[in-house]
Amino acid sequence: MTATASRTTNRRPELLAPAGGPEPFAAALAAGADAIYCGMGSFNARRKATNFTDEAFEQACRAAHLAGSRVYVTVNIVIKESEMSDALKALGMTVPFDAALADFSGLGDSSDGNIYISRVLHKAYIAVDEKGTKAGAATAVEIKETAAAVDIYSVTLD
């Protein structure tokens, strides 16, 4: 038996609990959940739940990690092609979309200003029939650059 096999056969099942907001999260933690999954914003199937503010989610994660529990964020809806940028931002990927903070200097530079991601488009195709499954996906990342700072001069003519 390999080391990997012995590790997996001796593991106990994980107690995973759902939490639609801060109160159920605290209850799951108090009940001894090994991990808690929750949704953020509108990119989860629990849209009608209380859900979390960014601050409440940060506090919940801190409490879970102090208790030795893991936290999973679900994105369990179909994200439309036009929603991909917003979904990535909602999951915490904000800096690459910020013209002032993004750093893509490893890709190159621009004399017109900083390079940043303006939007992400994703298209997926899945077909299942009696012959099997066919799937494909394509992602496009649109990069833009900010305009260079313009020096403004004031001239007064008498």
Précis, in short:
The protein is of the alpha/beta class and 158 residues long. Helices cover 23% and strands 27% of the residues.
What does this structure look like?
It is a single chain. This protein is an alpha/beta fold. The chain has four helices and five strands. Strands 1-2-3 form a three-stranded parallel sheet, covered by helices on one side. A two-stranded antiparallel ribbon has the order 4-5. α3 links the parallel β2 (35-39) and β3. α2 runs parallel beside α3 (54-66).
Strand order of the largest sheet: 1-2-3
Order of helices and strands: HEHEHEHEE
| Global shape | extended
Q: Tell me the quaternary state.
A: single chain
Number of distinct beta strands: 5
| Cα gyration radius (Å) | 23 Å
Distance between the termini: 93 Å
Task: Tell me the major beta sheet.
Answer: 3 strands, parallel
In helices, the fraction of residues equals 10-25%
In percent, how much strand structure appears in the residues? Answer: 25-35%
Number of helices: 4
Secondary-structure-based class equals alpha/beta
Low-confidence stretches: none
Report mean pLDDT, rounded to a whole number: 82
